[in-house]
Design brief:
glycerate kinase, domain 1; 2 domains; 12 strands; Rossmann fold; globular
Length: about 450
């Protein structure tokens, strides 16, 4: 993309603030209240039941409450992450139940919520409408273990997958086949009612069957696929799980089933839309904006190194991107937790951080203090990993400031300790829960 406007001088004066503006614009573009109106169906002849799960589920429920005709009946419930229920908009009556549960590792509250959601599907008729509100995070929040599988074992498998480096598609394939509600099973429970799913995508490729493990979408993966993934990453499972997957006892519903024929799925917000919104803002400030991709995957630190090489070349006038510019990307990278053993006499420490922070460490390593390059990486849900920050910032003097503070980047990378590294530099990005989720957002400013 190219801009013909003069560069806004404020960008030179405060690159950090400008990068934060880009992040906020990407988040704003994905907010449920802004995106829901175009996709709401007509009021049905029978009941309208709202069911949902995900980090954006609370805000999505509030949007439906605000937009659904006041004289039309509305009932149902959704489950979201602890602390992710927004304040209901002023003047909007409470018609839907919003509960909270644990993410990324499921807990008893999520189990109870899933059981209640499944119970709400009882007695539905062909005249009824089920409006399903689905967003990223729903896999952990909507937890209902397969018959014969305990919550404790499912939690252990989930934790092992999170540490393994498996990508989101692989993790959700396993989750579908260990569940009584995901992988199309919620839609099956709603039959014969019409099911319309409104989804906010947080996955590369925007595949509805992957978002929150597709509770209302026919599944193309199999028990065999799930078993192969578990074996590939050396995930410990019981004989019961092994047998159930090997014999396809826990197979998920497929697209050939009649129940899916009248159902609809609409993506109301996607990563690409948010990246394009940030690009438009950058262009309005006189910058060229380049959107690399909204589907980037791979190890966060390695993706950061690749971005660093691109930005460094552009800053030196040798790259494909013409400065001044902003380089944007999204997707869902992964962090493989290293089980590093401390050196003799050294104190062992557990790393803190998430994908965005680890990306920033890899980026800073590749940039090597390159002049004229600033960057921000953050998770659009406002939480990077399990800490309280959304992400982190990288500046031309990141490495020099770290050196003076006695920080060694290689050591922090070894322990996946992005939080500790950027906290000491006062370069963590905080937004709090954003009530949406279109996954990773990365912006690199080259002046």
């Amino acid at each position: 993309m190219k801009s013909t406007q003069a560069l806004n001088p404020d960008i030179h004066l405060n690159p950090r603030a400008f990068l934060r503006q880009l992040f906020d614009e990407a988040v704003r573009r994905a907010l449920p209240l802004e995106n829901t109106p175009a996709f709401l169906p007509k009021v049905p002849k029978g009941r309208t039941v709202v069911l949902g799960a995900g980090k954006a589920a609370g805000a999505m429920a509030h949007a439906v409450e605000a937009l659904w005709p006041k004289d039309a009946a509305l009932s149902g419930m959704v489950v979201t992450r602890y602390g992710h229920t927004p304040v209901r908009p002023e003047g909007v009556a409470a018609r839907l139940k919003v509960v909270e549960a644990s993410h990324p590792v499921p807990d008893a509250a999520g189990l109870s919520a899933a059981e209640e959601i499944l119970a709400l599907t009882q007695g539905l008729t062909a005249d009824d409408l089920v409006l399903c509100l689905i967003s990223g995070g729903g896999s952990a929040l909507l937890t209902l273990p397969a018959d014969g599988l305990s919550l404790a074992e499912k939690q252990a498998i989930n934790q092992a997958l999170l540490k393994s480096g498996a990508n989101i598609g692989e993790m959700n394939c396993v989750r579908k086949h260990l569940s009584r509600i995901k992988g199309g099973r919620l839609a099956a429970a709603c039959a014969p009612a019409r099911v319309i799913t409104l989804a906010i995508s947080d996955v590369p490729g925007d595949d509805p069957s992957v978002i929150a493990s597709g509770p209302t979408v026919a599944d193309v993966t199999t028990c065999t696929d799930a078993l192969e993934i578990l074996q590939r990453y050396n995930i410990e499972i019981s004989a019961k799980v092994l047998e159930s997957l090997h014999t396809a006892k826990w197979e998920s519903p497929k697209s050939t089933q009649v129940l899916f024929q009248s159902n609809e799925v609409h993506l109301i917000a996607t990563p690409q839309q948010s990246l394009l919104a940030a690009a438009a803002l950058a262009e309005s400030k006189g910058l060229r904006a380049y959107v690399l991709s909204d589907e980037m995957e791979g190890e966060s630190r390695e993706v950061g190194k690749v971005h660093g090489a691109l930005a460094r070349a552009s800053a030196q006038g040798k790259g494909a991107f013409v400065k001044p510019c902003v380089i944007l990307s999204g997707g869902e990278t992964t962090v493989t937790l290293r089980k590093s053993q401390p050196k003799p006499g050294a104190k062992h420490r557990e790393g803190r951080g998430g994908r965005a922070g680890e990306f920033c460490m890899g980026l800073a390593l590749a940039l090597q203090g390159q002049e004229g390059v600033w960057a921000l990486a953050a998770d659009t849900d406002g939480i990077d990993g399990v800490e309280d920050n959304a992400g982190a910032l990288v500046t031309p003097d990141t490495l020099s400031r770290a050196h003076h503070a006695g920080l060694v980047l290689a050591e922090h990378l070894e322990f996946n300790d992005a939080y500790g590294y950027f906290q000491a530099l006062n370069d963590l990005v905080f937004s709090g829960p954003t009530h949406t989720n279109v996954n990773d957002f990365r912006a690199i400013l080259v002046l």
